[in-house]
Amino acid sequence: MTKPGEQIAVEWVVLDIEGTLTATSQVHVVLYDYARPRLGPWIDEHPDDPVVIGAVEDIRARAELAETASTDEIVSVLHGWMDADEKVPPLKTLQGLIWEHGYAVGDLTTTLFSDVAPTLRSWREAGLRLAVFSSGSAAGQVASFSRTTDGDLTGLFEGRHFDTTNAGPKREEPSYRAIAEALGAEPGRIVFFSDVPAELDAAAAAGWRTVGLARPGEPFADADFGPHRAVKELPEVEVVPGG
């Protein structure tokens, strides 16, 4: 946690995406609408892909579907999860594959908030290290940063992308302990930026520094961030190497 006006000296800056770096509509409208009609065809067109096979098996198990369940039945489950905004790993895996393809062929471009790219670049130039923790799959994260309104930003993150599969749920403390271990950093030398107070609570419980994003027009713009410092844009916080 940080206090208003306090300089944050850390080694790592870990960032949420939805509502923090991009508008929620970038995911819930643009990306979801792109993936939704492509889930069934993607499953049918990649019958030998071990990642797809594993995701389908996981879907069947979670939804208690028969081994002979049709693609339509599987897609119905996936659409239900999407409608409920469930952060289910096999759904995120398939969405990530579809989005990765969409970015690669030029169908998709990530629209970032105007303050994001300049701030991330300035942090990197200052010597800070950047990582991402999002409910979207790691592959999907990489794809989303490969084609943005500010160019290819993948090089800023050193390939450090965490999701609910390789780290754990975003609102649970152990996930943040796992990320700190993977980064090889002491918890107090990491700061997490997110628009979701419950995620910040979990990060703080793991010993991380925290900053909330209360961006105007976003779902958590008027949320109670409690003990967490809340800002409207990234440059409002002075983050420097150290800690």
Write a structural description.
The chain has about 240 residues and is an alpha/beta fold. It folds into two domains: about 10-20 and about 110-240, 3-Layer(aba) Sandwich (Rossmann fold); about 30-105, Transcription Termination Factor Rho, Rna-binding Domain, Chain A, Domain 1, CATH 1.10.720. The protein is about 40% helix and about 10% strand. It is built from nine helices and eight strands. The chain has helices at about 25-35, 40-45, 50-65, 70-85, 90-105, 115-125, 140-145, 175-185, 195-205; strands at about 10, 10-15, 130-135, 160, 190-195, 210-215, 230, 240. The chain has a six-stranded parallel beta sheet. Strands 1-8 form a two-stranded parallel sheet. Helix 9 (about 195-205) links the parallel strand 5 (about 190-195) and strand 6. Helix 1 (about 25-35) crosses helix 5, helix 2 (about 40-45) runs antiparallel to helix 4 (about 70-85) and helix 5 (about 90-105) packs parallel to helix 7 (about 140-145). The radius of gyration is 18 Å and the shape is globular.
